[in-house]
Amino acid sequence: MHILLLEDSPVISTLLTAQLATMGHTVEAVENGQQGFHKATFRHYDLVISDVVMPKWDGFKFMEAMLVIAPQCPIIVISSSLEEKMVRGRLSNFANVIGFLPKPVKPAKLEELLDRVKIHSNEKVRKLARIVCTLGPASESPDTLGRMVLAGMDIARLNFSHGTHEEHERRLLAVRAAEEEWSRPIAVLMDLCGPKIRTGPMENGAVKLASGSTVIIQAEAVQGTAQRFSTIVPEILDDLRTGDPILLDDGLIELAVEKEGKSEVVCRVVVGGMLKSSKGINLPATPLSLPSVTEKDKRDLSWGMEHSVDFVALSFVRSAREILEVKELISRGKRQIRVVAKIEKPEAVENIGEIIAVSDAIMIARGDLGVELPASRVPRIQREIIKRCWQANIPVITATQMLDSMTMNHRPTRAEVTDVSVAVRDGTDAVMLSGETAVGVDPVNVVRTMASIVNEEERYTEPVEEQCELLRAHKGFNPALVAAASLGDASVIMVLDLKGEIYRHLSKWNRSKPTLLVTNSVHVARHSCIYKNISPIIIRENLSRDQTVMRAQEEAMQKGFLAKGDVLAVVEGARQTQGGIPQTGAFQLIQVE
Predict the structure, then answer these.
(1) 162-183 burial, b for 16+ CB within 10 Å, e for fewer?
(2) What are phi and psi of 388, to 5 degrees?
(3) Share of the chain above pLDDT 70, in %
(4) Is the pLDDT of residue 19 over 60?
């Protein structure tokens, strides 16, 4: 068996390692729970043997982390006989603990417990695709956030369609605290509301619109009835024309404009239903004059720049112009924030080429997209956008209702599992959770489930030839990087990339080996969280190139990426560019000793 041993006493650690070796087992020994956590995060172990009293992290904190990152891995607890009563009293909280042994550990008792361990032959698979989690009341506590990070959360999404700046600040600070505690960069994505059009308030909270009846939408605010209601964005009335369809509440109710006007429009109810307050209004056939970046968005973006968020998602994008407008605002604020274009309007699909060309990432927001366009077209559009993003070598997020049933349930539907798997197989860089983690019954379980689905699909998915051809045609294609990604002898690829340029090209190519991004910038590290199979290591000191490699190698070994005997491929990032294309400065193979 491959065993992880946590013991702070060098004498006991050496003795146990020797005992286990004589039994035919391989052992990796660490001194505390924090080191054990880093090892168990990136390597598979058949068994863990853990002391309780240790520096930095004690055994209980380590076992709590193991319940999230490796709940099936059995643990044997060792401790002083004087602490046995206290330890045994707490072990009932840990389902993965299979036994307790007092020190000094007797070989016969140890062997007896080892015989009870079920050996798992399936090798642990690293999750390559990223997971974006929306934060909300269900997921804002430090404990829950920490467990979500352990379960696989890479990016925390703050939805500015809901909540106050104070609430978002509390959640952002909790993310930064979790990032510090677990020594893992977590990106923060703020999602701007955009010109979201909603109905006004309704009498008694809801009114019934009967099919075939007539209803008026007016500019002046009013308590809605079955005869008339208002909208919070009265400017849309100027854009509506006779015959235009109006979809309410995600398309559950459909109206058609019969008489246009600036102060009110008369509509026929095509498909009726119960209309509640503040429900969404979609206008799939109406060209809107509303700006995509509202005054509220600008205030929210200013808040985001003050709080150093990592990504900003722009809602209801229609053209490249709106992306450039937001980038200009960010540039004036001198902030390092990447812009994500949300594709959820028919105009965005039509202009996808120009939008991709100026965006840092794309989000396929299938909710409104599936209302404004026939839902049957969404899978094909999703596949085409992912393909275009591969061609442009920029990351793409697939979002909306991926595990929606888990908002209320503890298990996903088979259709949802298939949906996630298809997105991963098509090549999405990230999958997103919305209400499932914001208001769901068990956010940690949702993240764990998503990671499990992603892992399972990635075990059998390789880039198809069409995707490889798209990358070869990209202007940033660098043969040296592909050589690094395909080296048969290398266990790990390390990219020295202070500017964060080279790793983006490796992300889509290299799936078989961990890719470590070594950078001195926390911003570059967080920005890398949206790219597949990139694990950042931050080296803040101003070191020479060789010192940086040695320091990063030490940290990689401590975190479990590397072990003695492994071969490390080092690719140095650009010191200059040629024709706008980053050039590798060096390429080296190192035998880890």
Answers:
(1) ebeeeebeebbebbeebbeebe
(2) -65, -35
(3) 89
(4) yes
- All domains of the chain, ordered by start, with CATH? 2-114 (3.40.50.2300), 130-195+292-465 (3.20.20.60), 203-282 (2.40.33.10), 475-591 (3.40.1380.20)
Q: What does the pLDDT look like over 76-85, one tens digit per residue?
A: 999 887 778 7
Following DSSP, what letter does each residue of 178-221 receive, concatenated?
A: HHHHHT---EEEEE---S--BB--BGGGEEEEPTT-EEEEESS-
Residue 392 host element (H or E): helix 378-392
The answer to whether 493 and 537 are in contact (CB under 8 A) is no
CA atoms lying within 13 Å on the CB side of residue 123: 3
Please enumerate in sequence order all residues whose Cβ is within 8 A of that of 495, keeping only pairs 6 or more positions apart, or say none.
Answer: 502, 503, 506, 515, 516, 517, 518, 571, 572, 573
- Phi-psi category of 334—alpha, beta or left, where left has phi over 0 and alpha has psi -120 to 50? left
Sheet holding 228-230, edge to edge: 228-230, 214-218, 264-271, 253-259, 245-248, 281-282
Q: What is the mean pLDDT of the chain?
A: 87
Which sequence positions are flagged as catalytic? 157, 198, 342, 400
Nearest-angstrom CA–CA distance, 520 and 538 = 5
Beta-strand relationship, 515-519 and 534-538 = parallel
The helix (run of H) or strand (run of E) holding residue 517 is strand 515-519
For the cut 80, the answer to whether the pLDDT of residue 112 exceeds it is no
| 162 vs 221: CA distance, rounded Å | 21
Cα(553)–Cα(241) distance, integer angstroms: 64
Q: State how far the alpha carbon of 413 is from the alpha carbons of 103, 428, 447, 560, in Å.
A: 47, 21, 15, 35
227 has a pLDDT exceeding 90: yes
pLDDT the model gives residue 125: 41
* Tokens linked to 385: 């956008």
Q: What is the residue type of 485?
A: A
**443-458 and 142-151 helices cross at what angle (nearest 10)?**
10
Contacts of 571 (CB under 8 A, 6+ apart): 480, 481, 484, 493, 494, 495, 496, 502, 506, 584, 586, 587
Q: What are the tens digits of pLDDT across the range 526-555?
A: 999 999 989 899 998 888 888 989 999 988
The dihedral sign for the CA sequence 492, 493, 499, 502: negative
Percent of the chain residues past pLDDT 90, beyond the cut = 58
Dist. CA 163–CA 46, nearest whole Å: 44
Helical (H) or strand (E) element with 467 = helix 465-473
Note the pLDDT of residue 476.
52
